[in-house]
Design a protein that fits this description.
Number of domains: 2
Strand content: 25-35%
Protein name: Peptidase inhibitor family I36 protein
Helix content: 10-25%
Shape: globular
Largest sheet: 7 strands, antiparallel
Oligomer: single chain
Order of helices and strands: HHEEEEEEEEEEE
CATH architecture of the largest domain: Sandwich
Number of strands: 11
Number of helices: 2
Radius of gyration: 18 Å
Strand order of the largest sheet: 1-2-3-5-4-7-10
Length: 170
């Protein structure tokens, strides 16, 4: 799998260079392949989920930082709940598969504001108190994570149902 991903990254960089008609020395091409792939992934994500501001090579902010989307897991953290302290996180795939969204606000949040409705498949709560409930249309609680139960590695049978969250703050 790693070889296929590396090949795709290198292939995309070579195609981009050829399409632009730019000549690049081989060592520079090898170093730029990763950056080109990152720019491609950022552009692809923003095209599918418009309205964000790029923070760095791996993060996009929506609505002034209310939610931060991280596109790729840090090396060595695949399949691990890795929400930073002070946030609650929701992941697009079961078992904490990225992209990951993170919020910290109390009260109702409409996930559609960040193009995240109907996408949460796992969650991690990393705050000192309270909990967050994931809802379908503010009327049906699907599941929750909080101080008493910090992780949900698979939201089944409610994968991709949540379109609202409510964080209960003490």
């Amino acid at each position: 799998m790693l070889i296929v991903t590396s090949f795709r990254t290198l292939f995309m960089a070579i195609v981009a260079v050829l399409l632009l008609g730019v000549t690049v020395p081989a060592p520079a091409l090898a170093g730029s392949a990763g950056r080109s792939a990152v720019r491609t992934e950022l552009a692809r994500y923003l095209a599918a989920h418009p309205g964000g501001t790029v923070l760095n090579d791996n993060e996009i902010s929506y609505q002034g930082g209310d939610v931060i989307v991280t596109l790729e897991a840090p090396i060595g953290t695949y399949g691990v709940a890795d929400c930073p302290s002070g946030w609650f996180c929701f992941y697009e795939w079961p078992h904490y598969g990225y992209p990951r969204g993170k919020l910290s606000s109390c009260g109702w949040q409409n996930l559609a504001n960040w193009n995240w409705q109907f996408r949460a498949e796992s969650a991690h709560y990393n705050l000192g108190s309270g909990y967050v409930a994931f809802y379908y249309h503010q009327s049906r609680e699907l599941f929750r994570v909080g101080v008493g139960n910090r992780v949900r590695s698979d939201a089944a049978p409610y994968r991709n149902w949540a379109n609202y969250v409510y964080r209960y703050c003490p």
